[in-house]
């Protein structure tokens, strides 16, 4: 996919002149406090929602000033993280039959995790808009600290699309590495039904027997663990931001706990979309909600903080910039 076809890049290209100036002149971000920056980032997302009638402000999570402050502090300390792991964005199924399945129906998750959809389904429009906030935050961190980032990602489009957009604005390359690729569920529905308990609603727990069985390939679980062990031993001149998937994050938490000889990270929990795991540090942090406010929408934030950044867009045009609608909103 070229950058011109990337939905996040297309969204940011449609923002106003002030936003464009800041993106092209990152040094200007140095003047902002984390609180001012979060207002700015939320203010960027507001008109993107206004221009796309398929998404509402109630569906978008606002950037959390406290989370920005914490990440900025982490990078300002001597023991800064050696890598940042992000979970991918929300998957939008290209198959209407799959989209119309109830979010609690295990078959929905199973279908979306089979190769046909898992590798090529894009992120949803809602998720593209939300990622603009995370992208801007890493531009802010880079401007404030002078840290040099690089970007890695899986081949799956819900990880590749945000990674390519992030790399463009951080002015670095985006590299696809196989070890970050999402596993594919077996195409044998009967096998999955037999092996994966219904209580999991199609989601795969981090369990050796279940992982190997659902993928249909013995050694899958150990292979992911080995990849993450190797990753933790690597050194780099840059700080890689890696957009990947739940199984890799589970395995990474397990390996970090093993090295720490204690349970410092939850192995079986799932990060939300764009949740963060700063690692390769003495203080790895499992940031479930990433840089977003938990259980709050951009609509709520605008009501609480009526500042100039939140002026309603004057544009009445609606339409999606190469990205599908998210409604009905699927389960995270």
Instruction: Give the overall form.
Output: globular
N-end to C-end Cα span: 26 Å
The average pLDDT value, as a whole number, equals 89
Examine the coordinates and then state which fold CATH places here, giving the name of the CATH topology: Rossmann fold
CATH architecture type? 3-Layer(aba) Sandwich
Rg result: 19 Å
- Provide the β-strand percentage band: 5-15%
CATH C-level name: Alpha Beta
Provide the low-confidence segments as ranges: 313-323, 325-331
- Count of helical stretches: 14
| Quantity of strands, as a count | 5
Major beta sheet summary: 5 strands, mixed
Strand order of the largest sheet: 3-2-4-1-5
- The share of residues in helices is 40-55%
Helix/sheet category: alpha/beta
What is this structure, in a nutshell?
The protein is of the alpha/beta class.
Write the layout of secondary structure elements.
Blueprint: H1 7-13, H2 17-24, H3 34-50, H4 65-76, E1 83-87, H5 96-99, H6 106-112, H7 115-118, H8 125-145, E2 149-153, H9 157-170, E3 174-176, H10 189-195, H11 208-215, H12 220-233, E4 239-244, H13 246-260, E5 276-279, H14 298-304
Parallel strand pairs: 1-4, 2-3, 2-4
Antiparallel strand pairs: 1-5
């Amino acid at each position: 996919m070229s950058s011109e076809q990337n939905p996040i890049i297309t969204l940011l290209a449609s923002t106003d002149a002030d936003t464009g100036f800041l993106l092209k002149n990152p040094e200007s971000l140095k003047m902002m406090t984390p609180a001012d920056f979060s207002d700015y980032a939320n203010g960027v997302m507001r008109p993107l929602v206004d221009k796309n009638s398929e998404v509402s402000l109630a569906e978008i999570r606002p950037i959390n000033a406290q989370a920005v402050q914490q990440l900025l502090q982490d990078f300002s300390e001597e023991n800064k993280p050696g890598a940042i792991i992000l979970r991918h964005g929300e998957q939008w199924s290209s198959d209407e039959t799959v989209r119309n399945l109830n979010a609690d129906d295990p078959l929905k998750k199973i279908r979306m995790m089979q190769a046909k959809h898992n590798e090529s389904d894009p992120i949803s429009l809602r998720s593209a808009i939300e990622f603009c906030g995370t992208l801007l935050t890493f531009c802010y961190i880079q401007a404030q600290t002078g840290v040099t980032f690089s970007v890695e990602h899986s081949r799956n489009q819900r990880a590749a699309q945000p990674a390519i957009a992030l790399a463009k604005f951080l002015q670095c390359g985006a590299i696809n590495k196989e070890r970050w690729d999402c596993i594919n569920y077996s195409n044998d529905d009967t096998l999955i039904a037999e092996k994966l308990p219904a209580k999991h609603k199609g989601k795969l727990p981090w369990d050796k027997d279940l992982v190997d069985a659902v993928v249909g390939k013995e050694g899958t679980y150990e292979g992911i663990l080995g990849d993450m062990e190797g990753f933790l031993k690597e050194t780099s001149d840059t700080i890689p931001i890696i957009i990947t998937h739940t199984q890799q994050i589970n395995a990474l938490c397990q390996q970090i706990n093993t090295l720490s000889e204690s349970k410092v990270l939850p192995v079986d929990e799932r990060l939300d979309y764009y949740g963060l795991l700063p690692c390769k540090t003495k203080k790895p942090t499992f940031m479930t909600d990433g840089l977003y406010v938990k259980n709050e929408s951009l609509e709520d934030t605008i009501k609480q903080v009526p500042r100039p950044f939140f002026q309603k867009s004057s544009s009445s045009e609606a339409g999606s910039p190469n990205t599908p609608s998210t409604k009905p909103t699927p389960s995270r």
